[in-house]
Amino acid sequence: MRRLTRTVAAAALATALALVSGCSGDSDSGAKGGSGGALEKVTYLTSFGNFGRDSYAWVAKEKGFFKEAGFDVDIKPGQGTGSVIQTIVGGQAQFGPIDLTGGLLQLGNGQAKDFVAVAAIQQRTMAAIATVEGKGIASPKDLEGKKLADTQSSVVRNLFPTYARMAGVDASKVTWVNGQAQDLMGMLGSGTVDGIGQFVVGQPTIETVTKQKAVMLPYSNVMQDLYGNVLITSAKLAKEKPEMVKRFTAALMKGLDYALTNPQEAGELLKKNVDAANPAAAAAELQLMAGYVRSNNSGTQLGTLDSGRVAKSIAILQGAGALKQNITPDQVIDFSLAPKA
Predict the structure, then answer these.
(1) Are 293 and 260 in contact (CB under 8 A)?
(2) What separation in angstroms does the CA of 142 have from each of 131, 137, 206, 244, 280?
(3) What is the pLDDT of residues 266-293, one digit of tens each?
(4) Spatial separation of the C-alpha atoms in residues 52 and 266, rounded to whole Å
């Protein structure tokens, strides 16, 4: 881990602020796909901003994987689970990743509907509480009496009561304040708060921004059955164009595999499309993310989703009182479209 941190020691604050839109310009309306037909235009949203963890989409575009599958893809920066769902269901975009647990919370509490997941991006949740040395936080119990910051719609924040209950933390003793995503690391570095909601892959950037050693409390340490990000589309598109969804998913998974195998190149491809991106930080994020994507079983095909594990995730949320409605795996996952193990 220290080696990865040193890799991005020169990463600039711009990496943490890389929320600008970026799309490569190698496509045009008259372009042809691998079969010689006209390319189908698709809008894809990242999970949040333009960080290295989402660079596989640009890899799929730049390496021609989307084009080979018959797509002209416009990549735009997403703004988190709730926003991505709303934009896709509303028809302004066709695909994008969300945190599956966040999606379950949205569906089970009546905040969203009419979306389906068709592939897993990460086999384990990357949600975490991040802090730095000197804050007196080394374990979940140490969060009591501390002040944490995150956006109101963040899955890290919305899942915290469940995490706290399972980790033996009195959530009523933890204070949450609002912060914009691009400001969170600065708030931590300035001492305004004791910790922030963050994905584990953000560790190198946190250390670059704060100039301090990061301490991460991954939710996966106590919630091992939870998936991380999943690729979603609208229920309408999944029903009307299942083969199109499968083609897009396969192309994106090809980009994901390539990015994990070639993180430095992926970082450079992200920089090519997003001026504010730092390729070293992006590569480090991908290296950290690899263990969450491939899981412990390296032979498992990328993107697979297991009904039993999703059911366990639902049971965890129900047991914690986090869901107002009873839901089933089939309500949120279209297993007929997901990659097979």
Answers:
(1) yes
(2) 11, 5, 20, 48, 32
(3) 999 999 999 988 899 899 999 999 999 9
(4) 8
Task: Provide the token pair at 274.
Answer: 């997003």
Q: Could you give the residue ranges of the DSSP H alpha helices within the chain? A: 2-7, 56-62, 65-68, 81-89, 100-108, 155-167, 184-190, 203-210, 235-240, 242-261, 263-273, 279-294, 307-319, 329-332
- Cα-based distances in Å from 313 to 112, 282, 302, 329: 18, 29, 20, 9
For residue 233, with 0-12 CB atoms within 10 Å meaning exposed, 13-18 middle and 19 or more buried, which class applies?
buried
Task: Round to whole Å and give the CA distance between 316 and 162.
Answer: 8
Percent of the chain with pLDDT over 70: 88
Report the first-to-last Cα separation within the chain, whole angstroms. 30
Q: Which residues contact 317 (CB under 8 A, 6 or more apart)?
A: 101, 104, 105, 108, 162, 323
pTM, 2 dp: 0.83
pLDDT digits (tens, 9 = 90+) for 28-69: 444 566 556 799 999 999 998 888 999 999 999 999 999 999
Count of beta carbons in the 10 Å neighbourhood of residue 207:
22
- Which SS3 state, helix, strand or coil, does residue 334 take? coil
Q: How far apart are the C-alpha atoms of 71 and 122, rounded to whole Å? A: 24
73 by Cβ neighbours in 10 Å (0-12 / 13-18 / 19+) ranks as buried
How big is the chain, counted in residues? 341
3-state secondary structure of 32: strand
